Amino acid sequence: MSKILLTGGFGYIGSHTASLLSEKNVDFLIYDNFSTSKYSVLERLEKTIGKKINYVDADIKDTERLIEVFSKNNINSVIHFAALKSVRESIIDPIKYYEINVGGTLSLIRAMKKTNIKKLLFSSSATIYGDPEYLPIDENHPLRAINPYGQTKLIVERILRDLVMAEKDWSITSLRYFNPIGAHPLGLIGDDPLRGKTENLMPSIIEVYKGIKPNLEVFGNDYDTKDGTGVRDYIHIMDLAEAHVMSLDYLMGCDGLNIFNIGTGKGITVLELINTFEKVTNSKLPIIIKKRRSGDVAYCYADPSKAKNTLKWKTKRDLNEMCLSAYNFSIMNE
Ligand code: UFG
């Protein structure tokens, strides 16, 4: 039986997608070097799916190793999650980001070409829309990256566009994720940044809830939004994982580059997310208002209708479930 290679399959989005592929009896092989995920994810993912996982501990930049893996396994497609994702770190060390996110993707494509594997699902990001010109953001919205991390995602999308123009036998899908939060219902896998690396809102909420951080910093309450705080399109990680499974089916019967927004279409403020978390966990978090974080936009939410119509995918889980599952994961992994 043919398999799917998941680069970065032990990361937050990769591990949840892997759990769902397993549920659907789709065979996969994980290729990951554990540079940004803990080794314990392997065990927790195995417990989640109830079986052993086939994986290769190797670097995406190692083209020869990728060629070897492709040659020895019956791989027919790739989901390419492996990338660095910290905006802050990308500003401090942009070259590392270009090397891993862009260089790593080029290495993967070279290996795929060599072994004649032409089906690729790419993890892109809504960050490439920059400060939106209109809302909700559809796939035709102009693209402008406002930090090196965003640049790497944009550059890769442009590389993929040029690739499918030049070589007609490729089928590539790029999923532009909005803000995934939450965790698998069993609570064994979730968003688990390495200590000191937390910068997204939900992992910060969890750290404050657990007392690891004394206060939850809200970056700006003077935006032109209903309560002054930033608006994002938070999507349950299991809904996002489902988008991958449905995109894979689409990828098999398609060619060229196809791009989809993966979000709920609903804008939620920072305070609304915090309030929902407090409500479902019956808690009160200490909050301090800080100045705006540089590079943040006031609004970012999707028009997901293309994914709905074409992939027949839609989100099923609400904000309560996102917060509850994130909480549940945090208490099961003290
Ligand atoms: N925020 C806080 N306090 C925190 C962390 C975040 O107030 O401690 C606010 C931010 O200012 C923003 C919102 O919460 O208004 C969401 O911030 P996140 O860092 O969770 O997410 P971003 O929207 O900044 O970025 C995320 C990913 C990017 C991705 C982008 C796509 O980190 O990788 O979504 O829109 F590109």
Write structural notes for this entry:
The chain is α/β, with parallel strands linked by helices and 334 residues long. It has a domain at 3-183 and 234-265 and 304-316: Rossmann fold (3-Layer(aba) Sandwich), CATH 3.40.50.720. 41% of the residues lie in helices and 18% in strands. It has helices at residues 12-23, 40-49, 63-72, 87-92, 94-114, 148-166, 201-209, 237-252, 270-281, 305-311, 319-332, and strands spanning 3-7, 28-32, 55-57, 75-80, 119-125, 171-177, 179-181, 216-219, 231-232, 234-236, 256-262, 268-269, 287-290, 299-300. The protein has a seven-stranded parallel β-sheet with strand order 3-2-1-4-5-6-11, with helices on both faces. Helix 1 (12-23) runs parallel beside helix 2 (40-49), helix 3 runs parallel beside helix 5 and helix 9 (270-281) crosses helix 11 (319-332). The radius of gyration is 19 Å and the shape is globular. The chain starts with a strand and ends with a helix. Uridine-5'-diphosphate-4-deoxy-4-fluoro-alpha-D-galactose (UFG) binds at residues 85, 125-127, 178-179, 199-201, 204, 217-219, 230, 232, 270, 293, 296, 300. Residues 85, 125-127, 178-179, 199-201, 204, 217-219, 230, 232, 270, 293, 296, 300 line the site of uridine-5'-diphosphate-4-deoxy-4-fluoro-alpha-D-galactose.
